[in-house]
Amino acid sequence: KDLTSQVSDGRVFVDVPNGLWCVNVIKTTRKGTGRKNYINTIDHDAVRYFIDQIYEPHYAHYKDDFGKTFAGFFSDEPEIGSFGGEYGHDANIGKFNMKMPWSQTLHERLKELWGSEFAENLMALWTTPDRNSNENKSGLCRMQFADIAARLYGENFCEQIGDWCRQHGVEYIGHVIEDGGMHAHMGIGAGHYFHALWGQDMAGIDVVLQQIRPGLDDCKFHSVGGNLGYHGELYHYALAKLAASLAHMDSKKKGRALCEVFGAYGWAEGLKLMKWLLDHMLVNGINYFVPHAFSMKDFPDPDCPPHFYARGMNPQFPYFKNLMEYCNRVSHLISNGVHIPAVAVVYPAEQEWAGEYLPVEAIGKQLLRNQIDYEILPTDVLLTMTVVEGKLKWENEQVPVLILSGSRCITKMLADWLCKAAEKGLKIVVVGQKPLAMDNNGILREWTSQIKDNLTICEQEDLADILYSFGVDEIKTKKYEPWLRYYHYKHQNGEFWLFMNQSETEEINTSLCFEDGMMDSHKIDKECSCWYQAWENTVEPCEWDENNDLSLQLVPGEMKVLYMGDCTPYAKILAEKQEIMKLKKATDSQTGKIEIVPDAWKLWIKDTGTEKYVLQEREKTGDFCRKHPYFCGVMRYETTVFLPKIKSCELNLGEVYETAHVLVNEKEAGVRVALPYSFEIGKLLHEGENRIIVEVVNTLANRQRDFFSMTMPIEPSGLIGAVTLDYF
What we know:
The chain is of the alpha+beta class. It is 23% helix and 25% strand.
């Protein structure tokens, strides 16, 4: 009951009925406990003032450079900000006593929506739904409030700035805070990932503070400093998909999905981990990157290392360009074309606001571990989509199956749409709790009985088998491969398949059976396929068996790119390499193997920041930092080998930590920053004596014990195991 009209001279006069009652006071204030001096991002005039004070002066000063030197503007982690980080990652609507964002427009829209029940419905924002009732009034009010607030953020902040940028010939990009579920929360979040970024010209995310750690995808673990806890599921199985999905559905994004990457991992993050993070993002559809960060401050700068240059103190910086060249090559392959997903998942923000729900990452884990690629679709966009011949279509993509997170309820509008879509042949799969439909009065009703066919309700562990029975899997492995990820992308003249082994310890040795692509891809033709080795920028022949199954071997952390299309430009190269493979198999008895024993090496070391190499008399191979724990720099291994006349030779360094630069007879043989540390050096060798130099570079973590590296392992340094030459 609203008692506002019964307040007089600072007192409220009311006849209290029998029973136990609670009196609540709701007020608006400019003196909350949230972020001080922070813009109200859901208020149009506040954001307009921000534009006038920041953006307009930039334009006045740099007008002639806009669209040229000035490409655009980047917003880094803007938020609704009504109560800042007070509730951290738990700032989901419905928490007891939580502050809520407010603006005049929000007030007006709620008054129009709720009418005479305005005050009572506001009170429902802080109450818990009655689990045993067929009414969810508090869930309805929470969902309506959060929806309006999130849309106001999108309209007033992101779209207003984005429109200003586009009107002035530049682009607007950036990201909000997504971690810990904040992509659908308020506070330090922006309420709804898709509403928040719709006005930008790219879809963006970031990965910082060790949020993604190889192998920690299915457990909780300590974050930087050990004070907070992360859960790996969101970061490994849904974060990148948020950006990639938005990039694929909003035409003004032009398929561009961006990630701010590498930041605040600490000096323990070297190029090896950076490549793993890049590959993880690439295989999930991210194709634009903002590397974090260069610092021109005096070394050491404590602000969120690693820094790529570090005033010349980062010994791996000379090889950072190799990583960026690789990144550009693969990003190019998954741009300006069409992603081919297998299924789509409904973004469950509204379900979360209303009460119990299954997070999207729980579904994503089941899909990606079983090589079923997916997109995430927000409800309001989904409701505008059409179903044709049993397939859900948008932009250039289509899927035959739509997956819905289990929850207590969904809106009646969504339930009605799902019923009509099922009638048109779209398969609907509900994972977990079967939701009820909630009407505009908060009444919950059963709706699934209206669907005669094409509805399946299953548990998480059964999802993959259900989808396999629908035939949505594009590839099949000969056994369960939970670490194998793939991404299928189609261009006008061919298709690319990215395959990554996300394990740090286990190899993948399997064969792939291909089904027809979801976009009427051509039939598999083994004569029109090859492996593209993006790190070396070379092509390699594929190995197919009599069943047209493709052999796939991936060492831990490795990514390969399969190309299917016109291989004519590479025919000569592929034929030569195919011939070498045949000769090697045919002359197996004539092959040779040399193991370079530790005593064969001479080791010279050069401390970072110095130019002088110092000969080490005792150490040969193994973890150099076990006896020299503070060493950071270059370990230069030199040896000579005697060889007969050969056709081909592979140098395998085995276990290396972590960047390896190889020279053979004073000529460049290549750089590797991660497994496999193998180099084809046959063309650099000659009969007789050959000189081999291996320069191994470690990270600054040994010398610079920074705060951010506290919860990161510091790996060994140098050539650890056996080094071999395989030749024929």
